[in-house]
Sequence to fold (302 residues):
Amino acid sequence: MGKLLRRGWRYLVAALRGKLDEVADPRVQIEQAIDDAKTQHQLLSQQAAAVIGNERELELKLTRSIEETEKLQANARQALLLAEQARQAGDERKASSYEDSARAFASKLVSTESAMRDLHAMHERAGQASAQARAAVETNAMALQKKLAERTKLLSQLDQAKMQERLNTAMASMTQLTPAGDTPTLEEVRDKIESRYARALGEAELTSNSVEARMMEVERAALDVEGAARLESIRESLGLPAAAATPALSADADAAAIEPPTETTASTRRRGNSGRKTADGQRGTRSRSTAEPTEKPSGDDT
Fold:
């Protein structure tokens, strides 16, 4: 039972880790990797600093040991010289005292030299360790700089990948094979507008071919013909020459000739003819009155 639970737990952890890797943001993962590298470099730098500090401390101890050794050697020599001087002076007691002091300095010198040799060996090992620590820090610093440059490169590639994905999405939305989304495409809008335009054209065609539209056209043509006739009668009453027929009037006249005359058109024509006859009679009367000479009275001959 415990083995089954452990296997299930490991499987659950692996599944969650895989799911997390799928949904994780690469930018965040890159920053996490860089932070870990910076933390490791900081710890390595602290350890290297401790090793180098130990070397410096041993170097200071070794320096003090050398100074103390030199001082003990000098004291031992001085004690021997004083003992020799006291012996030459005949003072054996004093010479013996100086001899004891010289032996004490020599014993201390031996222990100091032994400690100095140990410090010297430790200093050499600390120097090697500090050199390795410096090399490790430099190597790790170069690796960190490489990771920083790699981070910049990966972030640039990530931005390019996102841009390419957006471009692919935009290009895919322009094709007709992709399903319709929330926003309509230009092709859908164009099809909708063309459908409405075609339906409007069909309705206009049906309206233009209806009986009411034809009746309106006939009435409009009749009004145009009546207006043209009235204009000609006004021109004739003013004694102006007839105007040349325009293409529009000719077309209206042709349409009027094709369509059967209505009562309004016939009455208008009769009124135009009667007005024209009246005007001709008035002009004829004026011309006869002007052309006939006045008769002289018969009494003028005599």
